[in-house]
């Protein structure tokens, strides 16, 4: 048993000696390819707005067809360059408790212009009026660096 302990001790001390000698190795840095410079890619600084349209209304729900018509007639003409719509499930706290509802998330990436901001406000007001909504949540991120 003593011989086995001595062998392990010797092995341990030897491994420490070899490990200590690694410190003397020179550090080598790998060459990592660089991504193309910003000037080589078409880059725009824009604003991203997310609009959360709740679909519950006092007498039922905003139907898929109604929302698609709203999108076609109110949103797309104002932002014809493109947009994204995602089906979501939202919830919020009201005076009567937690309300859960189907939600449409509309993502718009646009110029930070007074005209575009006004168009978004008009979309929000039209949705509230048409579908008897108290509010539409709007989240604006500035700036959004966009590359194509």
Task: Walk me through the structure.
The chain is an alpha+beta fold and 148 residues long. Helices cover 33% and strands 35% of the residues. A hairpin with a 2-residue loop joins strand 4 and strand 5. The radius of gyration is 30 Å and the shape is globular. About 6% of the residues have low confidence.
What overall geometry do the principal axes of the alpha carbons give? globular
User: Helix and strand string, N-terminal first?
Assistant: HEEEHEEHE
Radius of gyration: 30 Å
β-sheet strand percentage = 35-45%
Strand elements, count: 6
What does the largest sheet look like?
A: 4 strands, antiparallel
Strand order of the largest sheet: 4-5-1-6
Tell me the quaternary state. single chain
- Low-pLDDT regions: 11-19
Q: Supply the helix-strand structural class.
A: alpha+beta
Terminal-residue CA separation:
71 Å
Helix content: 25-40%
Total helical segments: 3
Mean pLDDT: 82
Summarize the structure in short.
This protein has three helices and six strands, in the order H-E-E-E-H-E-E-H-E.
Please specify the SSE layout and strand pairing.
Elements: H1 2-21, E1 43-54, E2 56-57, E3 60-61, H2 64-75, E4 84-94, E5 97-110, H3 114-130, E6 137-147
Antiparallel strand pairs: 1-5, 1-6, 2-3, 4-5
Which labels suit this protein?
35% strand; 33% helix; 3 helices; 148 residues
């Amino acid at each position: 048993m003593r011989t086995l302990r001595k062998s392990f001790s010797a092995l341990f001390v030897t491994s420490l000696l070899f490990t200590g000698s690694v410190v003397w190795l020179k550090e080598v840095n790998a060459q990592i390819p660089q991504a193309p410079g910003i000037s080589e890619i078409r880059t725009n600084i824009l604003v991203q707005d997310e609009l959360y349209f709740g679909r519950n209304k006092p007498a039922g729900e905003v139907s898929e067809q109604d929302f698609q018509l709203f999108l076609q007639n109110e949103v797309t003409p104002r932002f014809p360059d493109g947009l994204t719509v995602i089906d979501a499930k939202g919830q919020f706290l009201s005076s009567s408790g937690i309300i859960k509802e189907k939600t449409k998330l509309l993502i718009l990436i646009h110029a930070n212009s007074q005209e575009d901001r006004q168009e978004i406000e008009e979309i929000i007001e039209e949705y509230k009026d048409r579908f008897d909504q108290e509010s539409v949540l709007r989240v604006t991120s500035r700036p959004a660096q966009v590359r194509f």
